[in-house]
Amino acid sequence: MDKIYLNKMEFYGYHGLFPEENKLGQRFLVDLALELDLKKAGQTDNMDESIDYGRIYQVTKEIVEGEASKLIENVAEKISASLLSEFDKLMACTIKVIKPDPPIPGHYNSVAIEIYRERSQ
């Protein structure tokens, strides 16, 4: 399956278990790998045969910057469900949500989760 990648999209949201996360908010990074057949798009140079990257970004932004979730796992599920619902050509997606500054003591770059979801047949 062919893939479209949107990498390191950055948003500001209020997700987390701790009250200060819900009040102050923090940065979130999102990586997407979208699986679909891109052969016709490549052959015809016709946007209707692909997926609008700008719309993908908007859907993701609305979720990450929207209603707060306790878990980034829930954020990823909402993104995958919305993308699979809105884009008929999309067959599967991998969603990675990265929390670069979680309120966890220690030295690390970030925490992240990644999910893979397919369209139901």
From TrEMBL:
One of its GO terms (biological process) is tetrahydrofolate biosynthetic process. It holds the Pfam family FolB. Residues 4-117 form the Dihydroneopterin aldolase/epimerase domain. Coiled coil: none annotated. The keyword Repressor does not apply. GO terms for molecular function: dihydroneopterin aldolase activity. One of its GO terms (cellular component) is cytoplasm. Pathway: Cofactor biosynthesis; tetrahydrofolate biosynthesis; 2-amino-4-hydroxy-6-hydroxymethyl-7,8-dihydropteridine diphosphate from 7,8-dihydroneopterin triphosphate: step 3/4. It comes from the Bacteria. Keywords: Folate biosynthesis, Lyase. It catalyses: 7,8-dihydroneopterin = 6-hydroxymethyl-7,8-dihydropterin + glycolaldehyde. The keyword DNA-binding does not apply. InterPro entries: Dihydroneopterin_aldolase, FolB_dom, GTP-CH-I_C/QueF. Its EC number is 4.1.2.25. Catalyzes the conversion of 7,8-dihydroneopterin to 6-hydroxymethyl-7,8-dihydropterin. Belongs to the DHNA family. This is 7,8-dihydroneopterin aldolase.
